[in-house]
Structure formats: structure tokens, C-alpha cells
Amino acid sequence: MPSTPMITRSNKGSNLTSTAKKVVTLDDIWKSLVTIQESVSSHDIKLETIVKNIEGFEISIKSFSTAIDNLTTELNLVKEEKASLALEVKSLHEKISKLESEHHCGPATNEYNIYQESLERMSKANNFMIFNVPLSANENSETLNVMVDHLFQDLAIQCQSTSVKRIGPVGSRPRPIVVQLNSPTDVHMVLKSKRKLRNLERWKNVWIHEDLTLMQRKQLSGLRSELKRLHGSGDHGWVIRNSYGSPKLVRTNPGQSTTENTKN
């Protein structure tokens, strides 16, 4: 009987100690759970960020893939265009070779020659030529300009030269002089007055002519040969008449001069 109370006290102390231990352990566990929860939340955020980054990389990869596809398409188009251009160049070379083999007699070449002739005539439209003027000892551009001014004075015409120079290779004869004026009208004025030269002692051995292209010179040479033949056969009713650089044979009076320049 006396031992019973001691057993009772012992059980109560043991229960208090056990309860205290349980309270501490639960608190620690709760804190641990909170810590774990926070860690899990942090990892969730990191995982979400990683997922977003991966999605961004996927978008970038798709964009790069699209760009590569576009570049590949453009490259193929360029290759096709290059091949097409190569065929065109080959075709042009073949056409050029064909034209050359035909001795430049094709229609396209004739059109080109006419175009070139027109340009050359335009470049010479303001010019005229002076032939058989002796070369002076100290001749230069200034003395040539003075000589041309004297010529205009003797012909009683009002003209102003913009360029005066000798052309052609040096030979036994004086080189011709090409004179550039301000307009074709001035040139026509000079050509109309050239008949006066034969009555002027200073200029009686000098003659004036248009600045002709090679085609015009060949044409004029052929007309002169034909005119000589006609006169030789007794038909003196022809003259060579120049209409703005286009010489032609014209039927006229037998007593008329064999070469004229008119504005027809």
C-alpha cells in the first residue's frame, strides 16, 4: 500500500516530460515544413523561369529556322536568276557574233550606224573648214583666232569663233583648219559668203567647206565623180547642192556653177 503513491508521482513526471518533448518536436517540424514550403515555392519560381526561358529559346529557334528557310529560298532564286542571266549573255554573244559575221549589214547595225552618223553630224553642225592656209612661223591658237577674225571682216559677216585649230597629219600641204561657231546659222552665213574669196587677193587660194563626216565625204566624192561624168558627156545642166550637209545632184541651168550651198 505505501508504495502506490510513489508510482503515481513517477507517472505524472514522466507524462510532463513526454508532453514537453512533443511540443518542441512539433514546433520544429512546423518550422521545417514552412522552410520546405518556402524552398518549394522558390523552386517553383525558378522552374517557371526556366520554362519561360525554354519557351523563349523555342521561339528563337523557330525564328532562326524561319530565317534560314527564307535565306535558302532567296539563295535559290538568286541561283535561278544567275542561270537565266548567263543564258541571256550567251544569247547576246551569239547575236553579236552573227552580226559580225554578216559584216555589219543587219538592220540593227544599220540603225546603230545611222544613230552614230546623226550624233557625229550634230557635233559638227557648228563647224566649218578652211583649206590651204599656209602655216606661219609663230602660229598658235591666238594667231589662228586673229586670222579667222580677219576672214570674217573681209567677208563682211558678223560671226564669233569659239574654237580654231588645225587638224590632221603634218604633210607637204598645209593642214586644214576647223573653226567652231556659236550656231549652225552662223556656219550657213559663212558658207553663203565663201564665193567672195575668189575676189579677195588675200584669200584667192583658200577655200571653205562644211565640216563633213566620213559618210558625207564619201557621198560627196561619189557625187563629184558622177558630176564629172555628166559634164564629160556634155550635160552641163547639173550642180551639187548642199542642203544642211546633205549633198545631192540637182538639175539646173547649164551656165550655173557646178557646186552650190543653199538653205533648201
TrEMBL record:
Residues 61-102 form a coiled coil. Keywords: Coiled coil. Residues 253-264 have a biased composition (Polar residues). The keyword Coiled coil applies. Residues 245-264 are annotated as: Disordered. This is Uncharacterized protein.
